């Protein structure tokens, strides 16, 4: 049997995936594994057939058993009811200081509660501290890995997913063995001890000094990017550069991973070969230098994974077993999955091993049949085609968005950064250790190339229409696509199937599978109308989707800004539009917005719209007739004008058709009154919020913005409102809105309150909650339940929450 390690790795991966899906107890898995292993032993002893299959099955059960054991052991030792205490432990990773936020992972020894000391060796906690002064920040920057910590902190569980399709931070921490987040009660409660000397602390210090060397020899414009590319210091990369790279599918270049490891290995191995060192000795020397590189670039999971794969590849060269490289790839996967089986679920692991496997199998034969004259160009094109085809389903599963410019961007940018910039960068960094003057030439050359490349990427990122949101397809599509890719690789690079008919059929199937994903949003949706009240913290945002694909965005959330000093500003200021609204729209497969409803100009309603408009075409904007009242609103109006998005004021007439079976009717404010300047005593635009009634499949949903008692009374006097199925409660449940007369008039069955957890305003008020309860409404709160999703179909109305999984079907 050939390549047994590869066969075992495939079986082990399937075992982990099956255990994650089935969630069987370790006892059940152990009994099944023993029985199957006995059966396999009998077949091998008496039949001596199907050895590869039996080995894969045995590995599958071993993977299930190992993962079940690891997962059952991954639990907190902290007793229930413990919410606060003095925690004693040691900083377990490089602390991160971003603006006025300090975060560090702590390996806990003990925790002191009011009653007793609890031994918690093995527990890990993520500590957070909001810094209040620049002096505190200076002290925070001096904390190193290994520092002893004694701190008073409030403990809470990490939040689960609050919006559909959002990143699962709780699961991310769980897979790192972290079950609690500790909020530190001020710097004064934090006691630090001198760190113990250790290898990782020394490596962190060397890495910090290397970053300073890069800042010395490179201009500020390119120093951050070079630090990210050469040393994996992602936080040094400017946020806008990171956004452009992400849009074009180039973000893998900003983190030290397989790309950088390959270049490092190529430079060292190639340089040794050029001076006459034999292939085996060059492989051995490069292998010995590889751990140093891995440590100096941060020792993160991605670089360890890439370093292990490269190291085993060098072992294959050293032992003259390069043709058996798939076995070494399988061995690398086995070692990583044994050490941490959760790594299987990371996009980095999936892309690394999936793409590497395809490149090892198909690059050489595919480059041979490409028609270009230069072999290097053939190899570059072959690598790009294979990497893009194989990575597509992983990107779709994890990110729900894909740029068709990614193919061309990778084809052009990767060779430039890989063949020119990164080798020159490592050369400049190496020479700068002796004297900065020696490093001038490679630093200057690489800086010029980087500047030109950044200009090209920035220009390319402005192209519109190439970035597509892709709704998650059904599970069987992934299996079908995998089979199609295997068929393509076989028919275009294999032996028996390299005939014209199979090649054409393979391409037809590939185009068909991509077109299915491209249109699956409309196929899966059916006749359902969806209204999602997103959890955007202390703000408002709702997304209306009709069965025909029309999309209306009601407000965009936002942060109520407070003055900050320069030292408090984080590398990437939190933007609810970029962090919540845009990912949700991608997840839903939404590619354009027909209407944006700006109920009024407060920051907590419009702050996230800029990011949305930057990423999606918009058909039109409806807002009240007030002139822009803040710099944020003025900037947003300029963005609308630049994008040539028409602005409208609501017309208070009868219902208008939005889509088949869907109408909407604007109820407030009276634009004529606002434009004429009547009722000048009104000092707030809250009462002039755009209010409209949506009738979707017979369900009546009332959107109220931040309208207050005066506006509610004006609406009551002007309109004869029907009973409301779903009310978006005005002004986050403030006591200035949602009065008794209003509730008696509309009789809402369901009430949705969009409000931030632990907000400083005390929303929602007790009076509003009591009033809603008295009126018989079911109350839904985004602070407690996450996003609230209303689904309307011919079968009826269904409303559900994201966090608590509460569910009502037709009011039951």
Automatic annotation (TrEMBL):
PANTHER family linked: DNA INTERNALIZATION/COMPETENCE PROTEIN COMEC/REC2, RECOMBINATION PROTEIN 2
Q: Where is the Metallo-beta-lactamase domain?
A: 538-757
InterPro entries, alphabetically? ComA-like_MBL, ComEC_N, Competence_ComEC/Rec2, Competence_DNA_uptake, DUF4131, Metallo-B-lactamas, RibonucZ/Hydroxyglut_hydro
Q: Which CDD domains match?
A: ComA-like_MBL-fold
The annotated topology with respect to the bilayer is: Multi-pass membrane protein
TM region positions: 5-22, 28-45, 50-69, 250-275, 282-297, 382-401, 407-431, 443-463, 475-492, 504-524
Keywords (A to Z) from UniProt: Cell membrane, Membrane, Transmembrane, Transmembrane helix
Q: Name one GO cellular component term.
A: plasma membrane
Name listed for the protein in its UniProt record:
Competence protein ComEC
Q: What is the lineage of its organism?
A: Bacteria, Bacillati, Bacillota, Bacilli, Bacillales
Pfam families of this UniProt entry?
A: Competence (PF03772), DUF4131 (PF13567), Lactamase_B (PF00753)
Q: Name one GO biological process term.
A: establishment of competence for transformation
Query: What's the source species for this entry?
Result: Marininema mesophilum
> Cellular location of this protein?
Cell membrane
